[in-house]
Amino acid sequence: MGKHEIRLRRQRMSARGSDRYRNYNAVLKQHSNEKRIKQITRIFTFFLLIAVVIIIFMIVTRWEKKQSAKPQSKINTSTLLVT
Amino acid sequence: MTEDEIRKEEQVIERSKKDPRAFGELYEKYFDRIFNYIYRQTDDEELAGDLCSQTFVNALNNINRYEFRGFPFSAWLYKIAGNEVNKHYRKNKGNKIFSIEELKVRELVEQGTDDWDEELITQLIRYMNELPTDMIQVLELRFFEDKDFKEIAFILDMTESGAKMRTYRALDKLRTNFNLKVKYDG
Fold first, then answer.
1. Does the beta carbon of B133 lie under 8 angstroms from any beta carbon of chain A?
2. CA-CA distance, B53 to B168, in Å (whole number)?
3. Is there a domain that residue B97 lies in?
4. Is B110 part of a structural domain of the chain?
5. Which ipTM score applies to this complex?
6. CB neighbours (10 Å) of residue B123?
């Protein structure tokens, strides 16, 4: 719903009045700019996603390495204790 | 719009999906209507010019998603234009403005009495200020843009019966409060 204000216009907008704002070349230019920005954003997002996947993969492999190294060291200490 | 005109327009849209320059034909065809529609909701030429350009840029950006759903292409443009206007008012937190041409109001209503005085116009404006905004939007599209209820429902994202109900309610109030005859209300 919301509030609004009604204004009465005595004179009709002439076609010439709106013609001052008619510029299809500007519309085309803005369209190609926005298209380019969209493409750049898409490429950037794609690389960002790949980087995140790589980082996650690296963290997981490092964590796995640590996990596999832990039991070995435990055995070693226990052997040391026995002797 | 005739079948032939709709088919031609469809061809232009298909061409525009491949070549944005082809969209120029639709731009020239609908520019004045969309500009006036926005101008009526802003009462600011500069702003209407900007929002009108943004409307066509948005239409061109999303032309690949456009599908014919039984409405003329202009309905889609009106919908985008309406969204742009709403976005502007949301951003600036101001009251929505409806700038109505006096001539259009005179065309729309026939007076019960012979003289058309200033006082009546002032009262009419005051009455319209009290109506809900969505009711004014429906009235604007129905009487100033000559849209049918199906198209109005599509443009304003409401049901056809909802659009009809709002119009008739507003017109009923108009008739009872002002002793006015609305020239067409079908």
1. yes
2. 34
3. no
4. yes
5. 0.79
6. 13
